[in-house]
Write a structure and sequence with these properties.
The complex is a heterodimer of chains A (232) and B (216). Chain A has 232 residues and is an all-alpha fold. Chain A contains six helices and no strands. The chains are: A mainly alpha (232), B mainly alpha (216).
Chain lengths: 232, 216
């Protein structure tokens, strides 16, 4: 596999188009399937009633919001290490999608919190706060990138910011965590057996996969736009 | 060397230093006007208010960190010069702290007095600021270096730096609150100390990288 072959924007451009098409298609199919499982097949929750069904959007969005930041930082680091043009473009293309998912996670969380916790918003919950700060970090990344004229310099400056941010996220998370937290413990973890019905888990995983596909498709479309804009 | 030079420059422009300190005091004095003069409430919010004011004041003086040197070309010489840029960045951050952070540590007990904070807490408050404000200067250095010569730099700097300040704020104000609850703030103070060590080790490095990007 010639990894660096696709590091050039020209050779990557058609590949990105293919990715965008097929992942976009997969995203539509998987979203429909995931929503069907989530809204019709999954049983009603014993404690939370029907209101819990928003987790089929909320949880995958929260996963994606954090994951995309890590991927962004990965591209940023790669750009620093190899000085490839495409890395910065990828990071810049991912940021708006990441911010979108962060916002969706916060918004759906608020909608879910109202009937369940009795409030839209709680200060002092570690995950809520770190998600909010994650949103600010995304905004900071995009604002810094947008305010520097020279695209190469913008890429490198924003990349540095992404790397600083990715080091900070765990610190932010743990610093807020010692506040007593209202958020329920994670329902899905890799180490313990899932505590929910199998259909619920399937629905959530299918939605997560759908969001993955959407993210890839959106980032690829955006990176094509960036490649064209810079005339590379 | 750089520290001495920075201090000298700062002393030549004494009003800048005074302005940052004055800003700290004014922000802290605005809160009672907005919230009301009820002593118990004020006592409860005092640590948070003083810390937020410190955050804002430290952030406002950040653009001075590199701007003047950037404008007259000194910074370019520093980047090209023989001295390691990381050390220069660390010295800059230290000087920034001596000019902006340390006066706040010194004046904080006076504000605490206004807020009628328990006298036993002055020590914790001063100590938390003593450990925390250098972290602000160190992290702020990265933001200041990144936004150098960028349009809309000031507001952008706030957007970049304030989210990164959150852990310091939580731990700093938390230390005082824990101490006021009679639980002792040692845990928070130790974490602040750890943050300071980590920031001192890595932030100058990142600042140097950012300076190279900005001055190429």
């Amino acid at each position: 596999m010639k990894w660096f072959w696709y590091a050039s924007p020209q050779t990557f451009y058609p590949l990105a188009g293919q990715f965008a098409r097929w992942c976009g298609l997969a995203a539509v199919v998987l979203t429909l399937a995931g929503l069907y499982i989530g809204l019709f097949l999954a049983p009603t929750d014993a404690q939370q009633g029907e209101a819990y069904r928003i987790i089929f959007i909320h949880v995958p969005a929260a996963w994606m919001s954090m994951f995309i930041y890590v991927v962004m930082a990965f591209w940023a680091g790669l750009g620093f290490a190899f000085n490839t043009r495409l890395s910065g473009m990828m990071a810049a293309a991912l940021a708006p999608t990441g911010a979108l998912f962060t916002f969706i996670a916060l918004w759906t969380g608020a909608l879910w919190g109202r009937p369940t916790w009795g409030t839209y918003w709680v200060w002092g919950d570690a995950r809520l706060m770190s998600e909010l700060i994650l949103l600010f970090l995304y905004f900071g990344f995009m604002a810094l990138h947008a305010s520097i004229e020279d695209p190469r310099r913008a890429d490198r400056a924003a990349a540095l910011l992404a790397l600083v941010g990715v080091v900070n996220i765990p610190i932010i998370y743990y610093s807020v965590k010692w506040w007593n937290t209202l958020h329920q413990g994670a329902s899905v973890s890799l180490t313990a057996a899932p505590k929910m019905a199998a259909t619920m888990l399937t629905g959530m995983l299918v939605m997560a996969l759908a969001f993955w596909m959407y993210s890839i498709a959106a980032a690829m479309l955006r990176v094509r736009g960036i490649i064209r804009e810079r005339g590379a | 060397m750089v520290v001495w030079r920075e201090l000298l420059v700062a002393m030549r422009r004494r009003s800048d230093v005074a302005t940052a300190l004055l800003f700290f005091v004014i922000v802290a004095s605005l809160f009672p006007l907005g919230i009301g003069a009820e002593p118990n409430k004020l006592r409860a919010i005092a640590p948070g208010v003083i810390w937020v004011s410190a955050l804002l004041s430290s952030m406002l003086s950040l653009n001075r960190l590199f701007a003047a040197d950037h404008a007259d070309g000194t910074l370019e010489q520093m980047v090209l010069g023989a001295a390691p840029l990381g050390v220069t960045a660390a010295a800059k951050a230290l000087a920034h702290w001596l000019v902006s952070g340390f006066p706040m540590v010194a004046i904080a007990p006076l504000l605490a007095l206004q807020y009628d904070l328990d006298a036993g807490l002055y020590g914790v408050l001063a100590l938390s600021l003593l450990l925390g404000t250098p972290v602000l200067s160190l992290i702020g250095g990265i933001g200041a270096a990144l936004t150098l010569g960028v349009r809309g730099g000031g507001v952008l700097l706030a957007l970049l730096v304030l989210p990164l300040y959150v852990p310091v704020l939580v731990m700093g104000a938390g230390a005082v609150e824990m101490a006021s609850a009679g639980l002792g703030g040692q845990g928070q103070l130790l974490i602040l100390g750890a943050m300071l060590i980590v920031a001192a080790a890595f932030a100058p490095w990142a600042t140097a990288a950012a300076l190279r990007i900005s001055s190429e």
